[in-house]
Amino acid sequence: MDAHLNADGPHLLANAERHYRGGPTVEARFEIPRPGFSVTVLFGPSGSGKTTALRLLAGLERADRGSIRFDGATWSHATEGIHRPPQGRDLGFLPQAYALFPHLSVAGNLGYGLAALDAHARTARIGELVGLLDLKGLEQRHPGELSGGQQQRVALGRALARKPALLLLDEPLSALDRPSQVRLRKELRDLLRTLDIPTVLVTHDRAEALQLGDRLVVMDQGRVCQCGDIQQVFDRPTDPAVARILGVETVVRGRIEAIVGGMATIAVGAARLFAADPGGLGWEVFVCIRGEDVAVERGAGPGSGSTARNRLPARITALNPEGSLVRISLDCGFPLESLVTRQACVDLGLTEGDQVCAILKAAAVHLIPHD
Known about the structure:
Elements (H helix, E strand, L loop, with lengths): L11 E8 L5 E8 L5 E6 L6 H9 L6 E6 L2 E5 L4 E2 L7 E4 L11 H5 L8 H14 L15 H13 L5 E5 L7 H18 L2 E6 L2 H7 L2 E6 L2 E7 H6 L4 H6 L4 E11 L2 E6 L2 E6 L7 E6 L5 E4 L10 E14 L2 E7 L3 E7 H7 L6 E7 L4 E4 L2
Parallel strand pairs: 3-9, 3-10, 7-8, 8-9
Antiparallel strand pairs: 1-2, 1-4, 4-5, 5-6, 10-11, 12-13, 12-15, 13-14, 15-21, 16-20, 17-18, 17-20, 18-19
């Protein structure tokens, strides 16, 4: 097999597997279509294989099957016995634990991988990184004297020191507290855009994935379940397992009773829902509804009956505060969840057992064929 990609091929093409004796098989099966800035997010629950897939890219794990190619070069090919070690791959790797050297200063950590440069060039590159990462005045401090956010920037700087063509980040914000994570997401996205290099990032945090990513690779039990444009994957999961992984609160079985004018009528439990017909469906479907798309009003009337909006009489079965939001569990002939602001819940005076009306647009109901 040719060791080089076609010039018109993807910038990164990973189609490899790692087999664990008596354990799972983990796939690294995705691509980055072109050079330049982009963030590909490996997303899934703990134990889904995200970090192993990243380590396959980094050369820290050896593929048992398949190949990994980057920018015209073969990094790994199991059949041909090709396995470039990490130092032979033009990449920077940021592990989840940062792994900074506690006995080295910030400057020492940043310059650790620059031994091939002369003293002048090494000092100049460290200075560039200090400026890029807003570490001015911290050069002589040691990791134990830094905040979590500062440690993260030093670790990122060390991964960037050799100007890699690909950047791999394993849960880059997980070691930080929640307020720091929220603050640093935008900073990290802006910094990655400035670097203008493709990045593969591992996370299990939905908000982090949405704020940082351009493409999404959903993983579960070592398998790549779905990949594509991040908003498209979040809005249109292709199977119920992916929907649940992506945080879709309501995933229930339904049956299409009629399709008229592009609008489907679906029987779900004891209720009827209207949804836009995406085409290509059988009669049996899975109905997927996100909590933030469900509004709750006092009263339980069916409304005008317009197919553009579903109005479902419902009973509140539970109220669970989640920070500034409240998750409302509803029984409307099938279990449905709504996510509303705490203030809205107070204004409506909602309590468990209340009869209410759940309202959601037909466009908010996503249908998945049931094979």
